Amino acid sequence: MTAGPVFTVAHDGWGELVLNRPERRNALAPDSAAALREGLSGLLASGARTVLLRGESGTFCSGLDLDQFKGGAGAAWSRDWTGFHRDLFACPAVVICALERYAINAGASMALGSDLMVAGEGAVLTVGEAAIGMHAPMNLAWLRLRAPEAIAAQLALGAGRLSGSDLHRLGLAWALVPDAEVQDHARAAAARMAAWPAGTLAGIKAALRRPLPQEGDVFDAVQARPGEGGAAPTRIAPAPRP
């Protein structure tokens, strides 16, 4: 096994971007975001047209390794973490997430940031930052881009969790398969799609992308909070009494 928090595997026309901390259920360490950016960049440079994003040893990602983030994330982490999500947004390759067991908090944002999600029947996606006093900016960004407000509210405000079948029913997961078949199904899809005519997937993906605002983007907007550079909450006056 390759050392480090992330490793890549290059195939013919596609590649695997693998979270590699199985002893911590692939929780993210302070150097994980930079490694994810480097790994994705390397796969694209090798000509990958599809990328399989997965976790090692049967679990996708249990979120941040809180033991390693005591005292805060730090500027380098925040820069690279936001940068990785911008990389996902701009990525010309189709990113397929193999959601095994669970994607929690920061892990959920990577699953939601993928173009296509293959979910196990027993998998769970949780956006639970609100319950522990965290802001969940990257989850908010992808939910704003991908989900109706009602679904986003259930997850982000209600610290909600969705099962694999819920994700599939709501259109957030592309495929729902038995837990033991998640990686095989996702690998087969990545290889099959990578063999399609060159430029097709990148062109379709570019056409599907919603344009971002000219000043800043959704990844900036979700990090602005009232009292910290964001707009103040709108106050709605009560309706006049008859």
Description of the structure:
With 242 residues, the protein is an alpha/beta fold. 36% of the residues lie in helices and 17% in strands. The protein has a single domain (6-194), classed as 2-enoyl-CoA Hydratase, Chain A, domain 1, CATH 3.90.226.10. It has helices at 32-45, 75-90, 106-113, 137-146, 149-156, 164-169, 182-194, 200-208, 218-221, and strands spanning 6-10, 14-19, 50-55, 94-99, 102-104, 116-120, 124-126, 161-163, 175-177. A six-stranded mixed sheet has the order 1-2-3-4-6-9, with helices on both faces. The protein is globular and about 45 Å long. Mean pLDDT is 90; it is low at 227-242.
Break the fold down into its secondary structure elements and pairings:
Blueprint: E1 6-10, E2 14-19, H1 32-45, E3 50-55, H2 75-90, E4 94-99, E5 102-104, H3 106-113, E6 116-120, E7 124-126, H4 137-146, H5 149-156, E8 161-163, H6 164-169, E9 175-177, H7 182-194, H8 200-208, H9 218-221
